[in-house]
């Protein structure tokens, strides 16, 4: 049985700021336990909820020579959903009220974390066959494994997989100001881990990992181009032979309209008309006009430019002046978008509700009660919200980029196929055109719309297919 260790900066249910935590929390559960022993290692943040901290058992602690001083490294352990979790403890780095702060602190924090993970393995008497690293926070780990431990017999057969969840975030900072990197030989500090005069943890992981993956096939192609590569397109082309895209899955048990306890009226493909009751309940909860003819367009997202909200804001006036259209927003993010959505909600209180904040229960009710889900991202490595919306028969409208292109099949009116609507260019007018086309189908072709809702609900978004692809990678690099 091969041993796989996931190394990540966050993971459900312990700490979450985005989709990375969802993947780290879900993917290991579905890997074949008869072939692989899966463990996860992450920082022991002080902000992890106390209910979890109370369940953790201390395994050991030790001190390791690092540039700042001899650093304390504590190791805690607990079981969750059949998976063994290890936690690296050091209050100097992990005592804050959030997992991430300013990048100048974070690069030093996660340089320590990567070093601590490797130093902890002999203390645990645990030698994994593969360390599966996630995003820039663990980008130094594959390089450190070869630089500092390449001649050590304990580590010699360990292989690494590095998954890029979002290439925009790279762990960039002034090289000489990162205390926990000062003992790394200059040929590496100013070589593999340097780009444009700064440190680049993501680049180090890309170059030194045995296999590089990202979270959709289209995104794997986009990051090899100047438009999508975030300055590393040349590096990505260089490693294209070991790069592949694997789309994320979602937990289909958690997002199941037939069993979801968060929604008032469960439904499935056979009684999809019940969704109308969820829509009416959502309109009431959000203070919208009780209009059965209204098409409710939902947004559940971080409110950032990456997600395309400058396009949405620019057409919101026209959209809300369209008869029988309502908009529900849930999320937090950039102040300008929070302000703009709140302003429109005040101007059109019977047609729009802006929930600035986040509630998982409320998110489920919005997914279940809405008719359409709007996700016009500027770029989107994978995206999970469009997959979730489809599970509730809520038809997505997306920009055809990254994982959105890979997961949403555009509606074909002639062949009566497709699971949503897409537009290609990052353009507000093009987005508004496709929204109006979707509204036309919704209002004038109810049978076609109902059939599309059912296709959405039948779309395979499970992790089972995904895990087979990762298992194949583990076999390839360890054989």
Could you describe the 3D structure shown?
Strands 3-4-5-2-1-6-7-11-12 form a nine-stranded mixed β-sheet, sandwiched between helices. The chain has a six-stranded parallel β-sheet with strand order 15-14-13-16-17-18, sandwiched between helices. A three-stranded antiparallel β-sheet has the order 8-10-9. It folds into two domains: 2-249 and 464-478, Rossmann fold; 272-460, Glycogen Phosphorylase B (Rossmann fold, 3-Layer(aba) Sandwich). β1, α1 (19-30) and β2 form a beta-alpha-beta unit. With 479 residues, it is of the alpha/beta class. The two termini are 13 Å apart. α4 packs across α5, α11 runs parallel beside α12 (335-347) and α11 crosses α16 (428-444). The chain has 18 helices and 18 strands. The chain is elongated.
Structure described in brief:
This protein is α/β, with parallel strands linked by helices and 479 residues long.
What are the main properties of this structure?
479 residues, alpha/beta, Rossmann fold, nine-stranded mixed β-sheet, six-stranded parallel β-sheet
Q: Outline the low-pLDDT stretches.
A: none
Helix/strand-derived category reads: alpha/beta
Q: In percent, how helical is the residue content? A: 25-40%
Largest sheet, spatial ordering of strands: 3-4-5-2-1-6-7-11-12
Supply the CATH class of the largest domain. Alpha Beta
Overall number of domains: 2
